[in-house]
Specification:
The complex is a heterodimer of chains A (about 290) and B (about 160). With about 290 residues, chain A is of the alpha+beta class. Helices cover about 35% and strands about 25% of the residues of chain A. Chain A has 3 domains: about 45 residues, Uridine Diphospho-n-acetylenolpyruvylglucosamine Reductase, domain 2 (2-Layer Sandwich); about 110 residues, Uridine Diphospho-n-acetylenolpyruvylglucosamine Reductase, domain 3 (2-Layer Sandwich), CATH 3.30.465; about 110 residues, CO dehydrogenase flavoprotein, C-terminal domain (Enolase-like, domain 1, 2-Layer Sandwich), CATH 3.30.390. Chain A has a 5-stranded antiparallel sheet with strand order 4-5-8-6-7. A 4-stranded antiparallel sheet of chain A has the order 9-10-11-12, with helices on both faces. Chain A has a 3-stranded parallel sheet with strand order 1-3-2, with helices on one face. With about 160 residues, chain B is α+β, with helices and mostly antiparallel strands. Chain B folds into 2 domains: about 80 residues, Ubiquitin-like (UB roll); about 70 residues, Orthogonal Bundle (DNA polymerase, domain 1), CATH 1.10.150. In chain B, strands 2-1-5-3-4 form a 5-stranded mixed sheet, sandwiched between helices. In chain B, a hairpin with a 2-residue loop joins β3 and β4. The radius of gyration of chain B is 15 Å and the shape is globular. The chains are: A alpha+beta (about 290), B alpha+beta (about 160). Chains A and B meet through α2 and α6 of A and β4 and α3 of B.
């Protein structure tokens, strides 16, 4: 239960980190918060020969906003997100969901970028990135590119990043004033991995009709699962109980693909998804100013 | 290859040579002899190794000692001035029987120090939520919750 030996570099500048990644992409791992990597190293499931520690790269730990979007450095800690006033007003869905990530002791170290790149299907942040239409900035020594969240998650613990690229920034468009939100999950104990979870967004027009909806699930497949058909079925409609019931059925029976684990069967996960979807939609509609 | 690090632990400065793979929990216990920090699961689930890192609670088994270079650490040994003058939080655990075997206790205390600072009047729900990252296999948590309530009173 101790990590295998490795070499260690702790650059202070992003530029140095990029050049180290370029030289050692095949053998190196980036160390962000370490809250998933270090346990995996303790178990020797992961044995990198080189760790590039990003914790001294101050230029990657910001949270700022411009006219339309939040800009979050990949090394911003989850605890920073939790208490950030811009996040609370601009993306209340994220503000509501961050306390569901593990425990304060973990959030004090864990980073937004680390959790996104780890791409654990049971993690909250990848789901939130899809729900909020995040754009993710990847950088390497040869330049930078922006990747939409929907193209970023490529399967179980897998992303669209090239081996020499570092995720450096997360851009989150502000949620509109007419968008209601909800984040719900069911876990055996507070802070444990959830058996099932959903992020719901509903945008209503002045007549109370739904113009846009989003339903994204965690622990429901080999990455964050965007139930597009269920969300589409709500758009252009006045959201009745019957309509929400059918959307919840569509998402939980057809669109998600939960595997089950030692705590739950796939059938129970589907049941939870259905119940959570209905509850989350109701809360989101209410927050969008609707009648429910 | 080893690296030289300088760490302040309980207001005392230590300089040591460490291998990068040495966990901070093992550094505290084996290099500094501060065995109050307990090691349970070594993958961040049990909370027994919780310490304060620059004043914030973290798992010392999920960070390498080398990352603590230049940082300020408090372990359970840093709470009481001496054995006759326990920290009010420790005194409350004593009085309310907030421990049985004591294995989880140092981690529980180090979780609660920042919690009570941020939340000096916690409800029972908030206390239980704050304790969710620390496993205790003896007490059933009830007396721990009582001890936290007592501590909140004492620390006012």
């Amino acid at each position: 239960m101790k990590p295998a030996p490795f070499k260690y570099h702790a650059p202070h500048l992003l530029e140095e980190a990029l050049s180290l990644m370029n030289q050692h992409a095949d053998e190196a791992k980036l160390l962000a918060g370490g809250q998933s990597l270090v346990p995996a190293m303790n178990f020797r499931v992961v044995q990198p020969s080189l760790l590039i520690d990003l914790n001294h790269v101050q230029e990657m730990a910001y949270i700022s906003e411009d006219k339309n979007a939040l800009h979050i450095g990949a090394m911003a800690r989850e605890r920073q997100l939790e208490f950030n006033a811009s996040i609370e007003t601009r993306t209340p869905l994220l503000h509501e969901a961050v306390p569901f990530i593990a425990h304060p002791q973990i959030r004090n170290r864990g980073t937004i970028g680390g959790s996104i790149v780890n791409a654990d299907p049971a993690a909250e942040l990848p789901v939130l990135m899809l729900a909020l239409d995040a754009r993710l900035k990847a950088q390497s020594i040869s330049g930078e590119r922006w990747i939409n969240a929907k193209d970023f998650f490529a399967g179980m613990f897998t992303t669209a990043l090239e081996p020499n690229e570092i995720l450096v920034e997360i851009e989150l468009p502000f949620m509109s004033a007419h968008t209601g939100w909800s984040f719900m999950e069911v876990a055996p104990r507070a802070g444990d991995y959830a058996l099932m979870g959903v992020a719901a967004l509903v945008t209503l027009d002045e007549n109370g009709k739904c113009t846009h909806a989003k339903l994204v699930y965690l622990n429901a497949g080999d990455g964050p699962v965007d139930a597009k058909d269920a969300a589409k079925s709500l758009e252009g409609e006045t959201l009745s109980d019957a309509l929400m019931e059918s959307a919840a059925a569509m998402a939980s029976e057809k669109e998600i693909n939960p595997f089950g684990n030692v705590h739950t069967s796939p059938e129970f996960q589907r049941h939870l998804a259905k119940v959570l979807t209905k509850k989350a939609l109701k809360q989101a509609i209410q927050r969008a100013g609707g009648a429910q | 290859m080893t690296h030289s690090i300088t760490v302040t632990v309980n207001e005392k400065e230590y300089t040591r040579e460490v291998e990068p793979r040495l966990l901070l929990s093992d550094f505290l216990r084996h290099e500094l002899g501060l065995t109050g920090t307990h090691v349970g699961c070594e993958h961040g689930v049990c909370g027994a190794c919780t310490i304060l890192f620059d004043g914030e609670s973290i798992r010392s088994c999920l960070i390498f000692a080398i990352q603590a270079d230049g940082h300020n650490i408090t372990t359970v040994e840093g709470l009481a001035t001496d054995k006759d003058n326990l920290h009010p939080l420790q005194q409350s655990f004593w009085e309310a029987h907030g421990l049985q075997c004591g294995y989880c206790t140092p981690g529980v205390l180090m979780t609660l120090i920042p919690f009570l600072k941020q939340n000096p009047n916690p409800s029972e729900d908030e206390i239980r939520h704050a304790l969710s990252g620390n496993l205790c296999r003896c007490t059933g948590y009830q007396h721990i919750v009582d001890a936290v309530k007592l501590a909140a009173e004492k620390m006012k």
